[in-house]
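Objective 1b: paired records.
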Amino acid sequence: MTKKIILLIAVSAMVFGVQMAPAAERLEIEGSTTVGPIADAFAEAFKQMQPDVDITVKKTGSGDGSAALIDGRCSIASMSRFMKPKEFKDAVDKGIMPVAHVIAMDGVCVVVHPSNPVSALTSGQIKDVYMGKITNWKELGGADMPIVAITRDTSSGTYETFHELVMKKEKMAGAVETVSSNVPAQNRVKTTPGAIAYVGLGFLDGVKALKVDGVAPTKRSIAAGTYPVARPLYLFTNGYPKLGSLVHQFCTFYLSEAGQEIIEEKGFVPLTNY
């Protein structure tokens, strides 16, 4: 965490209205591996402002976060997609009323090895790769090299976004490899010249992001809505949190300058910086 963010955290505690929580107050956050870096950094910031609070962050996927909120196993579900109708129904059936808090914008970036000469694909070409219709990079203007397609597991919000916006809800080929989160997808592409995967905007280190339908995944294009595979990032709570509570402070921290700086530092797009 940079010195600037540390200073802004101190200012936020005084100016933004962060109140001291009761001793030993707990906050459990569970869900998206994409939102995870933001949640981790927010937790670190809150521990600096309020050393007595106990904040845990679990990063197992958006679907797991939704299930944890519904089952009462977490205070906040971090999700890189909106809750599904069935999840809402299951929640209401258990007396839970999910409320969404949009904290940032993200792009699902299609990435390849840095040595790959291909720099742009259409969404149709990407879909054909994942359906097994295109299997060699030479068919896309690249080298004569087999394509190794990497996807996320179905509990992932990143998978849900890609499945809806790129795959148009059509099934992927059986040969497509599945990984559990952004980091394994990123690492697989880093070490495999023929690989292609999709990751959140904050996971582009060491890989090359492709233009999709002629638009590069940048903070500007995602904020403007011109990048075709963009999505909001959410925190979900059971009802609107009590004003001044730790849950309320955490879910509104993105409005502070420190929160904005953290979101940018993690590679995402602040809502307040449009």
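Objective 1b, second protein:
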Amino acid sequence: MVRKRRKGIYILPNLFTLAALFGGFYAMVMAMNGRFDQAAYGVLCAMVFDGLDGRVARMTNTQSAFGEQMDSLSDMVSFGVAPALISYLWALKGLGRWGWVAAFVYCACAALRLARFNVNTEVVDKRWFQGLPSPAAAALVMGFIWLMDDAGVVRGQDGLLPWQTMSWVMFALTLYAGLTMVTNAPFYSFKDINLKRSVPFAAIVLIALAIALVNIHSPSVLFTVFAIYGLSGYGVYLWRKAKGQPTSMISTSKDEPDERGLHH
């Protein structure tokens, strides 16, 4: 009699997913204690681990349905709930009802974006994201808080701008990041980059220069990168529109009626 093999879960990729989840949880705890610089570090570290778990799973051939669901739940906490709560505690709280509405819109859009990503996995072109990915939206929000904190902006006090104006800037940025997640704008996914393939020597030099540039002043350089990426989808959309090329990232579908609402 052949003994049936017991089902289990793969440890390695899920360890990275748990690390990403811890980063989001840590960020929320730090924000509640007024340590917004540490909160930013927590979310940014969660981004790194979130980018690694899928690659590790593919490289070690340990993909699983459990891992996919775990990754989505971790993303919702680290890139949906955490940035919404932190932005509310940092600046939106002073706007009263408008503040928590903006935070909720961001959180709801993150949930909608993740749900749409899960159901459209088989029909969306792998080279592009449909809407701003949730880690990039979180980076945009948290990068701004990190930049302001590094510039010496004290929560609740006038600094570079009157605090009321700063709160409205945070309001606009939070809404922009949230609503951009649920648009059909195409954002490059970088998934077609093969790390196993050899590259020219110049590519390594450029990587070294990029690392040096980040070290000049990490908050401003990284926020600039996040902002450029956060705008890039609309640029690609307008460029494709002007060229008469299809702007939808839906590549194939077995069920045409379900696809109609996804095309522009």
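The first strand starts at residue 128 and ends at 130. DSSP finds nine helices and two strands in the chain.
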